[in-house]
Amino acid sequence: MLTIGLAACGSDSSNNGSSAGEEGKNAKVTLELAISKSSQDSAFIQKDVLDDFEKKTNIRVNLQLIPAEQTTTVLQTKLAVDETPDIIQYNLASAVTDLNLERNFEILDNEPWAGRIVNKDVLSSGGHIYSFHVSQDTGMQGVVYNKKIFEELGLSIPKNYEEFLAICEKIKASGITPVFMPYKDAWAANIWPAAAFADFAAKHDPTFFDDVNSNKKKWSDVPEFKTFLEQQYEVYSKGYTNADVLSDSYDMAVGKFLNKEVAMMFMGDWLIEGVAEQDPGMELGVFPIPSSEDASLGASPLGGQLFIPKKSKHLEEAKQFLDYIASKDVAQKIVDAKGYVSNLNDVTTPELPAYKQDIVDNYITPKKTVLTTDAYMLVDRSELYRLLQDQFAGGLTPEEVLKSWDEKFSQLMQDKGISGF
């Protein structure tokens, strides 16, 4: 899942720009932009973009490239010891949990481009815009499925859990494994609950995430959450999945689809892109996790946004860089080159792959998406992932998973100094 671009920041702290003492009134300003080495294909740091920005503004951008595995630690240190970069590329949800978003980063509500943003939610936290991206395509999470298998068996997208089980039964009867569960990778077990919990909360308990983050409510207080965990396990216990769910890993998924061994998987649409790279003719799509009637499609927290630290030594110039990226002509070039779903009202989304156009037409445009639970979490979720693995190992009931997560969640929030814990 990390491949969807939990983009981060920099480690090479060498500064090739002028020091504060050397910068005369007309000297060139150098912005330090910190980014993970794993995100070197980022649209915002391509040489032609940075060169054109320098030509137009006389402001240079120096990249601080941080090893991917050290990104969070290095950024935490830089923010703490006043070695703050001027711009950071990171992920909003992770900035909340890892980098103390509200304390460390500028609110961007009043920037010139803010009024042109189509989907503010993917850039916002606590009602304020903290980051910038020209795309609103966050990576959608649901049930990835083989369209041809559905067509051959006369199946249609299920609207609820009962219809989903009926589809699984028909696929199994055809000799194909209905669902691939690669739960050796613990995070994969969270795709179903992350979307199901968020969809339920949005429709029936809109203050839930505020309440759970202020210790006014527990995860185990919502009976439906237990039901959603039961559902995912039932898909396995009914024999609709691979047998070795705790031995099989995500890196097997593309091959499983290419060989037509499986028909579906609870996953993000980044899997579709991975399959298409190997076999462009294979038609895959994605539909919402069918945990409730007419559920919304889960939207991952958007990766690779640009943030401006409050301690930036060149605050106005950093904002100038965002203005440049957001300018209609530059943003259009980036959106066209990367095949993004535009997040600016005067920038046109280019022709998209069929699966992505389906997502736009059926979910994004009619606003039938919901940010997954991860977007609201203030602490690391890996403990929850391990508890979900324990459920499939037969060690925990859904109720025990939630009660154990309540305890771990409370301790993590307490350790972080969150009020109310």
Helix fraction bin: 25-40%
Main beta-sheet annotation:
6 strands, mixed
**Residues in β-strands, percent:** 5-15%
Question: What's the quaternary structure here?
Answer: single chain
**From the helix content, strand content and strand pairing, which structural class follows?**
alpha/beta
Poorly predicted runs? 1-24
Mean pLDDT: 91
Report the total helices: 16
Distance between the termini: 30 Å
H-E string: EHEHEHHEEEHHEHHHHEHEEEHHHEHH
Radius of gyration equals 22 Å
Please tally the β strands and state the result: 12
Spatial shape: globular
Write out key terms for the chains shown:
421 residues; 39% helix; globular; disordered N terminus
SSE topology sketch:
Elements: E1 29-36, H1 47-57, E2 59-66, H2 71-80, E3 87-90, H3 92-98, H4 101-104, E4 124-125, E5 128-129, E6 140-146, H5 147-152, H6 161-173, E7 177-179, H7 191-204, H8 208-213, H9 223-237, H10 253-258, E8 262-268, H11 270-278, E9 284-287, E10 297-299, E11 305-307, H12 315-326, H13 328-338, H14 354-364, E12 369-371, H15 382-392, H16 398-415
Helix pairs in contact: 7-9, 15-16
Provide structural commentary:
With 421 residues, the chain is an alpha/beta fold. The protein contains 16 helices and twelve strands. The strands form three sheets. Strands 6, 7, 8, 9, 10 and 12 form a six-stranded mixed beta sheet that branches. A four-stranded mixed beta sheet has the order 2-1-3-11. It is globular, with a radius of gyration of 22 Å. The two termini are 30 Å apart.
